Amino acid sequence: MIITTTDSVEGRQVSAYLGVVSGDAVMGTNIFKDFFAGIRDIVGGRSGAYEKELQKAKGFALEDMQARAAELGADAIVAVDLDYEAISSDKSCMLMVSANGTAVKLA
Question: CB under 8 Å to 12, separation ≥6 — which residues?
Fold first, then answer.
């Protein structure tokens, strides 16, 4: 299945719009990742642990969205948008990724 952020697929014509599809993933982090990310905030640098969790969440959200489009019989998903959010409390942080797009049939 073709997944693209553009509103069309180069060289292909959209024959039917099947509707908006979405996929979501919420990933929890643990106290150790939060602790080391806090240190990174102080000394600077990238947080590898959070980056890995964010990549996993993005993959899960895209897979979920693709599965929903496949249920509709789609050949592609166009106009895909990814939204990211961090939900945190005093003790933990949750990373949320939402993928949204339009499922289409191609001619």
Answer: 2, 76, 106, 107
**Each residue of 34-93: pLDDT tens digit?**
555 555 555 555 666 677 888 999 999 999 999 999 999 999 999 999 999 887 776 667
Spatial contact of 87 and 93, defined as CB atoms under 8 Å apart: yes
Structural domain of residue 16, as residue ranges? 2-106
Our count of domains for the chain comes to: 1
For the question of whether the overall pTM of this predicted structure is more than 0.70, the answer is yes
Give the position of tokens 């933990």.
92
Q: How far apart are CA 28 and CA 16, in angstroms?
A: 38
DSSP conformation letters of 49-103 = HHHHHHHHHHHHHHHHHHHHHHHTT-SEEEEEEEEEEEEE-SS-EEEEEEEEEEE
Q: What are 4's two structure tokens? A: 């693209």
Q: How far apart, in whole angstroms, are the C-alpha atoms of residue 78 and residue 34?
A: 35
Instruction: Specify the CATH number for the domain of residue 38.
Output: 3.30.110.70
